Amino acid sequence: MADYRAPRDDMDFVLHDVFNVAADWQQTEELAEMMDVETASAILDEAAKVAENLIAPLSREADEQGVSFADGVVTTPDGYKENFRQLAEGGWVGVTANPDFGGMGLPKSLSAQYEEMLCSADIAFSLYSGLTSGAIMALDLHGSDELKSHYLPKMASGEWTGSMCLTEPHAGTDLGIIKTKATPNHDDSYSITGTKIFITGGEHDLVDNIVHLVLAKLPDAPAGTKGISLFLVPKVLSDSNGNLTEPNSLSCGSIEHKMGIHASATCVMNFDGAKGWLVGEPHRGLPAMFTMMNYERLGVGIQGLGAAERSYQNALEYAKDRTQGRGAKATRNESAEADSILVHGDVRRMLLTMKAMNEGGRAFSTWVGQQLDRAKYASDAQQQQRADAMVALLTPVAKAFLTDTGLESTIHGQQVFGGHGYVREWGQEQLVRDTRIAQIYEGTNGIQALDLLGRKVCGSGGKLLQPFTAEIEDFIEQIAPHKEWTKQRAQLKQALESLNGVSAEVLDKAAADENIINSVAVEYLHLLGYVAYAYLWLRMAVVAEEKQAERPYLATKIKTAKFYYARILPRIHSLVASIKDGSESLYLHDQDDF
Amino acid sequence: MADYRAPRDDMDFVLHDVFNVAADWQQTEELAEMMDVETASAILDEAAKVAENLIAPLSREADEQGVSFADGVVTTPDGYKENFRQLAEGGWVGVTANPDFGGMGLPKSLSAQYEEMLCSADIAFSLYSGLTSGAIMALDLHGSDELKSHYLPKMASGEWTGSMCLTEPHAGTDLGIIKTKATPNHDDSYSITGTKIFITGGEHDLVDNIVHLVLAKLPDAPAGTKGISLFLVPKVLSDSNGNLTEPNSLSCGSIEHKMGIHASATCVMNFDGAKGWLVGEPHRGLPAMFTMMNYERLGVGIQGLGAAERSYQNALEYAKDRTQGRGAKATRNESAEADSILVHGDVRRMLLTMKAMNEGGRAFSTWVGQQLDRAKYASDAQQQQRADAMVALLTPVAKAFLTDTGLESTIHGQQVFGGHGYVREWGQEQLVRDTRIAQIYEGTNGIQALDLLGRKVCGSGGKLLQPFTAEIEDFIEQIAPHKEWTKQRAQLKQALESLNGVSAEVLDKAAADENIINSVAVEYLHLLGYVAYAYLWLRMAVVAEEKQAERPYLATKIKTAKFYYARILPRIHSLVASIKDGSESLYLHDQDDF
């Protein structure tokens, strides 16, 4: 595999030239003093070094070795423990954690770049710290002061890690039917009993303690999703000074053997009257989880982006080196037996699709990160509300669209290698296998689409779509003077009109047709994704045009924007046609007809 | 994994009700006596038993175990040797081989069904006999009588297997630059020296001898593809009675560790002055390979179909059993905690996409098989020529479209399982991994597209497209009285017009633009694929309508046809838009811009 090189230039372009995130930082109390362009650059440069030099070199071998399980003990691949120690010492486990508890407190627009680099380096490794970040956030938002002061410093420092225990054998998407029980003890603790599956990082040998956040039902719980509570259940109990005392009554029963992320431990966790503490209000466990879900889901989306960027870098290096066949007469290297495969239109199609989707994806994840930051920090109430709405709308898109297109890109990147892409040694097939899970976990992409079209768009009567369309409409107005983009501007306008049109149509039909939303949701999510990328690509192109005099490499942005509009955006035609068809063709078949 | 059940009803429907292949058989000297509907059914029933009971049950475990390599020896998974022996004894290795040499001599329309079943059961296992079939055909078509009588009976009986040695480390797609050399010995043999890679079944322990067909260059060879000759190089030499004597000077240097088909040995083969015999004319090795390539490429396409069918069966069983969430009010099972996930529109979308593409794919592969049979057997010269043209046009589509859509289907089939689809135990992820290679080997799908649009469509000035479009136009005329299909008929007409339109446009542009063909070829191939399936689906629907009184289950065909037209065919809109864009947007980037 080619060495990974973090796309730092492009990250800076997106952060500062396109979104001007530093202006946001300056307006907030929490960030104005700690963060500016230079500090951000220094942090990301450091993160790049960690990803490039520490994490990436281990990922192939770690995939081969995988995690192993014996007698309840999970052993991670050689080098993981030392790498995790170094990651923790650099403060990267607590990169987004609250500074009050020792975290770095990075805004999401910035940590999104760090996460992308870490995922490019090794998705499996990234999950140990990624899940810890999620657990930190849930605890920080909903835990009692006592729980927070006891657990958060150890987690933010990476001394302890975290896990999220939601799924049970019979309950994945449908958490309302979980069976794990929590019964009150005589002190302030609870006894947790039940079996959880698919628990990422549920058990491992990287650190001495793991803080499980577990969904369970109290004895008096109402049925369904409104009767679920959240509990903190540590692997090892500790005294008031945080010194480990005795093991809790829980164990890892086995690990899954999976298609990919072989180096990530996916555990069956058995809680057998384990001691736990309530996090947040009784029966309010799901909402507590969902407050941090927006961050987590963007993070999972970024796994798709990170893998796709890595695959692109590898494929590009291979395409430049590999000579096979002949290009157009004018471009032939007559002194060689064959030309670089980069001369071939189809190889270009695959590489440019990856490039356009990766750079578009980086802009998109940063944009969503900026909205998350505004939702959290903005002092202006109206700006904050608007950002809240954007986050609600765009989070499912970020999770599903970045991973669906991420899988497509890693498949292209594998195809560029021909037979060598199928062989493990080059690493391209690993990226496909590792990316595939991101379409499934943290809510399948079908569920994301249902969330977008059902809960968000239709659930708000279409209102949640308005800030998004308004922003794009404003932009279309603004760029009217840019005559060289007249064609693309018209395409964007039409694409947005299509989105608005089908949104209204689905809303209208939904009143009488219970099935329509889930029948067209995935196509709808993709449509919204392509429209968002079209907006971002044109926005990037206009900025690049303004700044290319000082930075000539930005001329490439303009070319890639044109490629996106010519070859990628037309995908919406098929999506629109499918959405307009509605639910009828999906419900002709009776169960026995399948 | 669910037990595999061969879709025998659907195979019979396609073979007899839709394509009436028995009428073709009756008109040919070779087949009239040996084959009729009853015989064909008996053979396929027997094949179904082999696939279901013998091959399929081993595939999961064989994937886990994989092939192993030590000191030049390749060991296949437990049970493979015995299964191969039983396959051979049943006559299945020589299923398409010439009866003069002990083969079964099955027409391709029929053997395509057998191949699909074998691939549903286990793609990796199928390759050992599949490559043997290919080698048998190449030898039968181009070998001397002496070579044929010596080797073919042993190969058709499955006593010996075959391999095809084409690729070298620096030469895959571009075979014109291979380096393997053949120098004449003093007798009629040659000394073959060189290294071949990615050789499927190049070495294994299933049988005692392997007959390698090797591309190499004679000392006086012209440069490029016109200087390649084909040689038969056995693993073990044999006397005139076919008794093995001494090992030849060749060896397996290593095997590849791959994403999938773990139980198939992919070998590096070193020929070190190995004794070989010329097959066909000197320097005419590539054309000799290509005469059997049409059969082989359809066979690879069928791998995609077979895996997708298996994935569908598994996903359907899972979807029926798994309860999660609630369907529309009218369909709820109030006595249970949740409904079968088959009630959800998005699950239906995935399953119906698989079903429509699988049944459409089965019709397509059978149609191409029928054309291959007509090209080989038809006594009417005009019918034969027409079939030749259809085979030339449709073979690259069969290879690439069946595998591209096959991968899509196996991914849907995995997604239906949620997290369980990512876990190895259920087998859904293996089907994704095993299918992925079929898009790469035997000419990548990009190369298939280039063959279709460049060599076939543009190379013939559009003429090769005519029998295809004429057949569909005739059909559109014929079904004018079927008023219930007016809408779909109009859609088919429009789709065909789009295909014709972009074909003319590309042909026109190609005169001045060397890059256009390879810039739009993949989209073009997909467009042609969707149009072909649209034709076949409507053809099936009309037949089903006529016959559903006697066979009520055919009502389902009509529903699935409607689904195809509503949700799948609209994909062509985006493809047409991309093709119309041409090559410009792919060639804005200089090499350093990537």
What does this structure look like?
2 copies of one chain form a homodimer. Chain A is α+β, with helices and mostly antiparallel strands. The first copy, chain A, has 3 domains: 147 residues, Orthogonal Bundle (Butyryl-Coa Dehydrogenase, subunit A, domain 1); 125 residues, Beta Barrel (Butyryl-CoA Dehydrogenase, subunit A, domain 2); 289 residues, Up-down Bundle (Butyryl-CoA Dehydrogenase, subunit A, domain 3), CATH 1.20.140. In chain A, 55% of the residues lie in helices and 11% in strands. The first copy, chain A, is built from 19 helices and 11 strands. In chain A, the strands form 3 sheets. In chain A, strands 3, 4, 5, 6, 7, 10 and 11 form a 7-stranded mixed β-sheet that branches. In chain A, strands 1-2 form a two-stranded antiparallel ribbon. Chain A has a two-stranded antiparallel sheet with strand order 8-9. In chain A, α8 runs antiparallel to α10 and α14 crosses α17. At the A-B interface, α10, α11, α12, α13 and α14 of A face α10, α11, α12, α13 and α14 of B.
Q: From the helix content, strand content and strand pairing of chain A, which structural class follows?
A: alpha+beta
Strand content of chain A: 5-15%
Tally the helices of chain A: what do you get? 19
Helix content, binned percent of chain A: 55-70%
Record field, number of beta strands of chain A: 11
What quaternary form is this? homodimer
For the residues shown, what is the average pLDDT of chain A? 96
> Could you spell the SSE succession of chain A in H and E letters?
HHHHHEEHHHHEEEEEEEEEHHHHHHHHHH
CATH architecture group name of the largest domain in chain A:
Up-down Bundle
Total separate domains of chain A: 3
> Unreliable runs of chain A, pLDDT <50, ≥5 residues?
none
